[in-house]
Write a structure and sequence with these properties.
By secondary structure, the protein is mostly helical. The chain has 16 helices and no strands. Helix 3 packs antiparallel against helix 4 and helix 4 runs antiparallel to helix 5. It is globular.
């Protein structure tokens, strides 16, 4: 039985460690988009290279995050968490020193592996270390501080890009790791799941990542990679075959026997696909077309995160009373409205009249949507499978964002040099936002049609407050 009390010195050190670790990965997911124009200018990179700068990280993270959680359960959550932090920092150093776009993309892929090791471990360490009476408060503080980190991220990233330079967006992770690792080794107790057994599904993880990678490559390099698209689909089929036959699969396919769980993940693919494309292109639109500095572009999107951080817990409580169907319908429709409002953002856009209304509506939509979605995913499966259900949903959201960043520029007709021309990019952006809005409307219709009120007595999220705009909260199996 975990017995560390939150008020103790050790409890505070554990909380600091997990906040530092999760903040590294969360900062990265919100900061890099702001730095893309400067990266492209400095490294003379094409739009496809900027897409890969985002997607190389998301590819390895989405493909390996379920395996990362299993490694922590088996070999020790602190050990795998520390390895992940060190790996992430080393890869961040490589990103910051990259002499060209190819090296940056390779380093970003390595960074995603580190993220897959440390991301599941942050919350798992809290759940496995703190006394049950203090666990809810510890998780609340962890999610609150993490949300503040997500809110500060774009502002900090913009300041770094405009000041010392874009490389410091990555180099910042190194001092965070130098602080986090010794604290973790000294103050965080080791824990593992004695029930973990069997062989790791390495083949499944490789096939899943390969399928995503090949399809992503085919979308980004459209016209020259049709055979790779076929190979990606074949790898996906092989992944399903392997997962169906394995005794301990990374992705147990029978979990999709729950129609509610399947429907919620399809809704997740729609909404987080739209979000991924929206945040990727909006950071570029504000700088390339509207003429904002990196700092102004990062700060411009701050209200969305702030609204989520302030009101997500209340939204979850409301969904408990009225059921998830209405929030999961209204939330995507509000976000779709926000993306259509972004069509007002053009050259010399005024923040108060052109940008802020869209950002506020987006924030309200995400407040309405995110917490009920997480709660519904956990409630749609047996209590014992809540952790794996959350992991699958989180991976699905990351995969959706990955594919959206790859596909949306293609669908909007963006050429390899589009981000260098304000006029060309603005026209393509105006084509992209209605596509994102349409995908959200599809998600809303699916939610209204398929989502039902969960049964009483189901698992509820431990992470009630959330500020990450690119993925839903990740719950783990540390409740025992």
């Amino acid at each position: 039985m975990p017995d560390v009390r939150l008020a103790s010195s050790q409890g505070k050190w554990i909380l600091l460690t997990t906040v530092l670790g999760s903040s590294m990965a969360m900062l990265d997911s919100t900061v890099v988009n702001v730095a893309l124009p400067r990266i492209g200018e400095d490294l003379d990179a094409s739009l496809s290279a900027l897409q890969w700068t985002v997607n190389a990280y998301m590819l390895t993270l989405a493909g390996l995050i379920l395996l990362g959680g299993s490694l922590g359960d088996r070999y020790g959550r602190r050990k795998v968490f520390v390895v992940g932090v060190v790996w992430f920092a080393a890869a961040s150093l490589m990103c910051g020193l990259a002499p060209n776009d190819a090296m940056l993309i390779a380093a970003r892929a390595l960074q995603g592996i580190g993220g897959a090791l440390l991301t599941p471990g942050s919350l798992a360490l809290i759940q496995a270390s703190f006394h049950p009476d203090d666990r809810a408060r510890a998780v609340g503080l962890w999610s609150g501080f993490g949300g503040i980190g997500a809110a500060v991220g774009p502002f900090l990233g913009g300041w770094l890009v405009d000041g010392p330079g874009w490389r410091w967006v990555f180099l910042l992770n190194v001092p965070l790791a130098l602080l986090c690792v010794p604290v973790a080794l000294r103050h965080v107790p080791e824990s593992a799941d004695g029930r973990a057994h069997g062989r790791f599904d390495v083949l499944g993880a490789v096939l899943g990542a390969l399928a995503l990678g090949l399809v992503t490559f085919a979308l980004i390099e459209a016209g020259t990679a049709s055979l790779l698209a076929v190979a990606g689909v074949a790898a996906g089929v092989a992944f399903g075959y392997v997962e169906k036959r394995r005794q301990d699969p990374m992705l147990p396919l029978d979990i999709f026997g729950s129609r509610q769980f399947t429907a919620l993940n399809v809704v997740t693919l729609c909404v987080y696909g739209a979000f991924g494309g929206y945040f990727f292109l909006t950071a570029l639109q504000l700088q390339v077309v509207a003429g904002y500095s990196a700092l102004a572009a990062g700060t411009a999107l701050l209200p969305t995160t702030a609204l989520m951080l302030l009101f997500s817990a209340r939204s979850g409580a409301l969904a408990d009373r009225i059921g998830p169907r209405i929030p999961l319908t209204v939330g995507p429709l509000l976000c779709a409205t926000a993306m259509l409002l972004m069509l007002r953002v053009g050259a010399h856009a005024d923040y108060l009249t052109d940008v802020l209304p869209a950002v506020l509506v987006q924030g309200v939509g995400m407040v309405v949507l995110v917490a009920p979605l997480t709660a519904s995913v956990l409630a749609s499966v047996d209590t014992a499978r809540a952790g794996i259900a959350s992991g699958i949903n989180n991976a699905a959201a990351r995969a959706a964002g990955l594919l959206a960043v790859a596909a949306l520029p293609l669908l909007a007709g963006m050429g390899p040099e589009a981000y260098r021309s304000p006029t060309a990019f603005d026209k393509a952006f105006d084509r992209a936002m209605p596509i994102c809005a349409g995908v959200l409307v599809v998600g809303a219709v699916l939610a209204f049609t398929l989502v039902r009120r969960p049964a009483p007595g189901c698992v509820r999220p431990e992470c009630r407050r959330h500020g990450n705009v690119t993925t839903p909260p990740l719950e783990t199996d540390g409740r025992s």
